[in-house]
Specification:
Layout: E1 4-10, E2 13-21, E3 26-30, E4 33-41, E5 44-47, E6 63-64, H1 75-89
Parallel strand pairs: 4-6
Antiparallel strand pairs: 1-2, 2-3, 3-4, 4-5
Length: about 90
Amino acid sequence: MTAFNIEINHNDQAIILTIIPKDDYFQIVYLEDTLGVIKKQESDWILLKAEEIDTEGLAADHKLAGNGHHLSLGVAEINQISGAIENHLQ
């Protein structure tokens, strides 16, 4: 599967995220930086913590966020992202 873009609402602003499918998770990229990794476990979606992410498996062009393009992803954003991924997979 190839990468795809989704639009979510964050702090009352529409932002575009790139979703990069991997073997068993999806990499969330914003402005060239990886914000995190989301994974489906049974019927729930979880955002993996930085220490749980295998950085060697991340797309080479996208490093874990740390150089200014950080967004805090809360429950509302994770729900939007997971819903968009599920819609894309259908």
